[in-house]
Amino acid sequence: MTRNGRLLGIVGGSGLAYLVLAILMGLLPGVALSPIPPGPGVAALTPQQAAGRQVYVAEGCAYCHTQQVRPLPMDRIFGRPSAPGDFAYQTPELLGSERTGPDLTDVGVRQPSEVWQYIHLYQPRAVVPQSIMPSYRWLFTVVQTPPAGVSPLTLPPGFGPANGVVLPTQRARDLVAYLLSLKQAPIPNYSPSVAAPGGPAVARAGFDYTQLGANVYGTSCAACHGAQGAGVPGVFPALVNDPVVTASDPKTHIEIVLNGLHGKSIGGTAYGGQMPPFGSQLSDDQIAAAIDHERTSWGNHAPTVMPADVANVRKEKK
Ligand code: HEC
Ligand code: HEC
Questions:
Q1: Per-residue confidence at 80, pLDDT binned at 50, 70, 90?
Q2: How far is the CA of 219 from the centre of ligand 1 (A)?
Q3: Can you tell me the distance from the alpha carbon of 68 to that of 40, in angstroms, rounded to the nearest whole number?
Q4: CA distance 113 to 264
């Protein structure tokens, strides 16, 4: 073979291999998946949510966040495994490949608080002190006096501008509308033993219950109530010395964690934030452990609860 012939063989051969692989792995799966109808309960995006999706793409959120829950135990905290019907209205899919931050497939359920999302985008460290997420200040404007009827962000002391108040721009409002729309629709007859974030009961001899409580509190509660239970004044209540957390009867405490809370005035303060329900996200063990963490930390000394207590309150509700 001549030199040129050999070169042609190498270039042509690898080009052909590339083409076959591209069709096999890139094109055919898309063609096979595209006729799949939306899953039950999967809704099209509103114009505002669709605009927010564009902001998500433009700001590069997908460099650190996935939107795909794999059928693996380590992914259970992010929701049930993703199904093809979930993506009917989310094309091109923003699956992502880097998980520097948590998966956002179900973040509208995990963090349904608009106020929290704004504070977090403006300055992640205002609500998650150890966060490495960049702050998206340019999605906000600082004005001296807000226009009538518009409420500015309530930021923890030290995080706001020296002068004036912070307002979300239209792009921030669209982005938050999109984030809050990211909710997994339940799949009918789907076996909850696989979907349940907590999996099987863990309270057994030798199990470190205190550590579980600290972990669950850290991942599910600290973002709003603070690692030390100090909250964010006016937005998320402190749990130190809180009447519900220190009550000898834990029933209200359990109910609030299971069902969430909105519009209650605590110690004379009406909180702008909203507490999401955790009943469908956490197991009885995880809820009991988190509650016990709150009841026995930061100087609180209240009677603790058992997973069975949580199960009883769940049953009463049904
Ligand atoms: C450099 C990586 C990085 C980028 C870019 C990034 N994030 Fe994050 N994000 C994180 C990390 C790390 C966390 C976890 C710590 C925290 O909550 O701040 C996080 C947390 C979050 C959470 C809370 C998730 C939960 O389960 O509580 C939301 C919502 C979020 N990011 C949205 C966004 C949006 C929207 C953008 C784009 C505007 C973005 N992120 C860009 C790293 C990133
Ligand atoms: C998205 C923010 C957010 C997250 C996450 C969150 N909370 Fe809350 N929580 C709130 C807000 C806001 C209130 C007050 C609601 C109101 O006053 O209507 C609240 C109230 C409470 C109260 C009631 C205090 C009282 O005196 O009535 C308890 C107890 C509580 N949260 C525990 C928890 C636990 C346990 C977790 C984690 C499993 C958790 N919270 C996660 C925002 C949050």
A1: confident
A2: 13
A3: 18
A4: 15
Residue nearest atom 39 of ligand 1, based on CA coordinates: 61
56 lines ligand 2 (CB under 6 A): no
Place of tokens 């702050």: 135
* In the block, residue with structure tokens 């042509």: 12
Ligand 1 pocket by C-beta < 6 Å: which residues? 56, 59-61, 63-65, 100-102, 104, 107, 110-111, 124, 128, 131-134, 136, 175, 179, 223
Residue 64 Cα to ligand 2 midpoint, Å, equals 27
> Closest Cα to residue 76, out of 48, 106, 116?
106
Mean pLDDT (the chain) is 88
Residue 173: what are its φ and ψ, rounded to 5°? Answer: -65, -40
Rounded CA gap, 115 and 235, in Å?
A: 8
In tens, the pLDDT along 179-192 reads: 999 999 887 766 54
- Which residues does 223 contact at the CB level (< 8 Å), separation at least 6? 111, 116, 120, 127, 128
Question: In 3D, which of 253, 89, 263, 97 has the Cα closest to residue 183?
Answer: 89
Tens of pLDDT along 135-190? 999 999 999 999 888 889 988 888 999 899 999 999 999 999 999 999 998 877 66
* Ligand 2 lined by 118 (C-beta under 6 Å): no
Q: Nearest to residue 238, comparing CAs of 252, 224, 249?
A: 224
